[in-house]
Amino acid sequence: MKRLVIIVPDTITRSVSNFKEIHRQAIPVTGQSIINALVYDAYDENYFFPPGSVQVKSIDDYADQRSGESKPAMIKEAVLPEQRMHMLLDIRLMPFEKAMSRIIAFLDARQIDVYLFDNDRFAGNDTTPQREIITYATQQESAPGLPQAGDATPLQEERETIYETPLVVEGHQIGHCRIERHMTDGFDRDLWIKDIEFITPAAARIIQANQHRIQSRKAYIDDLTQLYNWRKLNEQMGRMFKQFKTGRKELFVAMIDIDKFKIINDTYGHLAGDEVLRQAALVIRDGVPHVYRYCSELFCAVFYGQDKLEVLDAVESLRKRIEQMSFQAAGLEFKITVSSGIAEFETSMNCFMDVIDRADKALYVSKEEGRNRSMFYDDIKERYQAEASRLRQRTMMLEEELRLLREELARKKRPLN
Fold this sequence. Notes:
The protein is an alpha+beta fold. It has 3 domains: 80 residues, no CATH class; 105 residues, no CATH class; 157 residues, Reverse transcriptase/Diguanylate cyclase domain (Alpha-Beta Plaits, 2-Layer Sandwich). 46% of the residues lie in helices and 21% in strands. It contains 14 helices and 16 strands. The protein has a 6-stranded mixed β-sheet. The termini are far apart.
């Protein structure tokens, strides 16, 4: 069945903000009859399969119904089976791994290698085995043992073909891919290349989107511990700040620090220290609801919707568990402890950093009193206020002494009459 491929002006796709709206606006033009058509945006080099259509009889009629928008830049006929049109939409909506598997199956490829300009080799997902996602191979191992006389079968040459094509998105080449497949009987290379040209624009979009997802994830993930970092903490807490201000649920923050961790680094090296830190991070992650690596050996745990006793119990249980554990690194066994400072968010606070600052002050007291303990800010608040009062008084005394010294120096510099 013939379909009309409508190359939509880029002004249409640029005027909308989401995929569903693009579907609504990319109306197929099919002349006398109404048939869903594959829509191809030449600017984005992207395919769409709109679910709906309107009754139009000509291109001019189409332009009139678009409320003055520009006409489609080009209309051409193409033979596009229904299945292919659905496939293009499906792979756009699939998870990356499934989409790549679908493309590999469509091309009957043995292997696809994707090369990007910003990486020597890109292999898909950064947290799971990469090659399984974009490499498809079927290999048969010969049975063990020597062949017997008369059992030999004629050897068949295994032929393969390779095709390389650029990956282009929005007119910019982001890399290229190398596609390899077995040449079976009746294989038509020209037809296979047409299939590659058909699917490559959609594949390029999928690959680029996945790369952006990976890069975005790396910006928020600590490489060593695989925990969210302080950047993610600030972004999430800032986004939820208005919700916190309502006070509907209690919010607590615990700053957790590994005691005397610098000694491990200085004595046994950073490789051993990193391994101990990585293992400790796993224990902390399992012991609290939400944890972030704040910096170095300092972690930030967030408790939302739990009361004070539950938070204290969780932090203390974590402290005791770490104290009893042994951590293996560089062939050695390490014993560590942690100190914690806990604070509660108050609706009168101006920003999330205010509660972190209080938790950090409680942590400082935990360290000052001998480490390997947990302190709640409310329990040391009066002490801090008293110390702050003494500090203010001492500052005022020093300022007064400085003022008197300046007056005395000024008198000595005056000439005698």
